């Protein structure tokens, strides 16, 4: 499919950005100026009684955002096909909310247990994406209900459930060593990261996205319920706002640093680009994973107290874009192509450590990934009073090596590093979509 012309998305946000003429008078960025914060950084400032409940915050609100498929006021339930060539939740225009969980197979669970669970999960996931309860013996007073019930009366909210397998699943526990996707291995140690094992890894991952947070949470909770005895939850993340557009038909959202995020993301409607950068192709020896993708997740904490005291000019230099319009510092419109060669006063207009320069395909041999992340919050650090939150980065690609290449450069040189820290990580092989009559159990075990 051809990508339609990429004109600027109408945006009624007041432009708080100095225009290029004003910008010329701003001093050039430096690591020192970045540290010259407005006001004292009160690392120890107590915020008594101000704890935010992470779940409460993330689950507040039910409004459908600009990415919703059903027009405002439409009574049509918005559903996304569960079955198809590829799993839903990758090329699907990003929904507003995320519930992402990983699981480990329980000690003692067998290959047959896992295969049976994956078959059960398929039926449950398909039903939930249609807005139906988990199938079972409803009404039996002597057994727990098969569906936990909190999505009754809610619309499906474009729910997608995307399943992935971590590298450890292909060890010798379940006879899967010969079926390991060739690029699936643990990520290497990357510069600057400080990963918490409790936020990292997992045998399986489930990404549930929907425009209603309760619908997304319900999906994960019910898969977890069906998994009693076979899988154990490892970690879970709630995302309360999408930070990427996956189609230029969606307005570009803003991340928690206040910048438009996703402007130069892959447009997932472009099948040619998806085929070259995202879907696992014919070169993969494991036929069963062709048409799938690799998912890399990173929990990235933002040092918001520090960021919120930084000068606007410096914030813009960190990304290489204007905060108001999202335009590159060398342009006027959000979708203008950055001019990485442009100089002013002997320095690059888009600084040499700017995030968009270092992450760009122009500086990485044409390398691209599909970003599909969400903002998260874990409330407040009770020791310091600092906000805990940032970006739950999720990206899809045809090899995790793409992420590694980018992150080696970003982790070592990105101006953004002063304000962020990678604290959690995951890499998963996401199998292709299911045709009618097939399920995840037989797809994995063959
Ligand atoms: C390894 C990959 C990336 C990580 C990790 C990452 C973290 C990260 N990014 C932002 C905010 C923005 N990123 C933007 C662009 C951008 N970022 C990456 C990759 C990673 N980002 C890529 C490949 C690109 C596109 C580069 C290009 O093609 O020019 C932008 C600019 C707008 C946009 O194009 O999306 C913003 C803003 C944060 C806050 C963050 C970690 C917390
Ligand atoms: Fe980025």
TrEMBL record:
Where composition is biased (Polar residues), the residues are 243-253
GO BP term, pick one: iron import into cell
Q: Where is the Dyp-type peroxidase C-terminal domain?
A: 252-433
| Region (Disordered), start-end ranges | 1-29, 132-154, 243-262
The coenzyme or cofactor needed here is: heme b
| Keyword Heme carried by entry | yes
Q: How is the cofactor bound?
A: Binds 1 heme b (iron(II)-protoporphyrin IX) group non-covalently per subunit.
* The EC number(s) this enzyme carries: 1.11.1.-
Give the protein's function. Answer: Involved in the recovery of exogenous heme iron. Extracts iron from heme while preserving the protoporphyrin ring intact.
Q: Describe the family membership recorded for this protein in Swiss-Prot or TrEMBL.
A: Belongs to the DyP-type peroxidase family.
Name assigned to this protein: Deferrochelatase
Please report the organism this UniProt entry assigns to the protein: Actinacidiphila paucisporea
């Amino acid at each position: 499919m051809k990508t339609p012309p990429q004109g600027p998305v109408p945006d009624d946000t007041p432009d708080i950005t100095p225009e290029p003429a004003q910008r010329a008078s701003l001093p050039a960025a430096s690591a020192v100026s970045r540290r010259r914060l407005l006001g004292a950084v009160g690392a120890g400032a107590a915020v008594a009684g101000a704890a935010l409940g992470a779940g409460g915050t993330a689950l507040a609100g039910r409004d459908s955002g600009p990415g919703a498929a059903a027009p405002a006021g439409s009574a049509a339930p918005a559903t996304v096909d569960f079955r198809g060539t590829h799993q839903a939740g990758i090329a699907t225009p990003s929904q507003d909310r995320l519930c992402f969980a990983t699981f480990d197979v329980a000690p003692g669970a067998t290959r047959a247990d896992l295969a049976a669970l994956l078959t059960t999960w398929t039926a449950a996931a398909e039903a939930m994406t249609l807005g139906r309860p988990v199938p079972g013996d409803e009404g039996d007073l002597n057994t727990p209900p098969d569906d936990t019930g909190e999505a009754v009366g809610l619309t499906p909210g474009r729910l997608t459930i995307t399943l992935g397998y971590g590298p450890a699943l292909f060890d010798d526990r379940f006879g899967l060593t010969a079926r390991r996707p060739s690029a699936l291995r643990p990520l290497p140690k990357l510069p600057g990261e400080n990963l918490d094992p409790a936020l990292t890894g997992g045998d399986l991952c489930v990404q549930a996205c929907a425009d209603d947070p309760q619908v997304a949470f319900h999906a994960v909770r019910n898969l977890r319920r069906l998994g009693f005895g076979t899988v154990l939850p490892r970690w879970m993340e709630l995302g309360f706002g999408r930070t990427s557009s996956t189609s230029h038909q969606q307005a570009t959202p803003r991340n928690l640093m206040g910048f438009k995020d996703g402007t130069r993301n892959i447009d997932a409607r472009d099948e040619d680009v998806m085929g070259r950068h995202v879907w696992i192709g014919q070169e993969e020896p494991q036929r069963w994973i062709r048409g799938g993708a690799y998912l890399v997740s990173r929990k990235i904490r933002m040092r918001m107290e520090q960021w919120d005291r930084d000068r606007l000019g410096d914030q813009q230099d960190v990304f290489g874009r204007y905060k108001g319009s999202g335009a590159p510092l060398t342009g006027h419109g959000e979708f203008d192509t950055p001019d990485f060669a442009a100089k002013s006063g002997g320095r690059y207009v888009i600084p040499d450590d700017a995030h968009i320069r270092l992450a760009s395909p122009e500086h990485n041999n044409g390398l691209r990934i599909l970003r599909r992340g969400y903002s998260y919050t874990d409330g407040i650090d009770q020791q310091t009073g600092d906000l805990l939150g940032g970006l739950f980065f999720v990206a899809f690609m045809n090899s995790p090596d793409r992420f590694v290449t980018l992150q080696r450069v970003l982790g070592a040189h990105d101006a953004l590093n002063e304000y962020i820290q990678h604290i959690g990580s995951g890499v998963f092989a996401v199998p292709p979509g299911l045709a009618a009559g097939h399920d995840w159990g037989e797809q994995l075990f063959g």
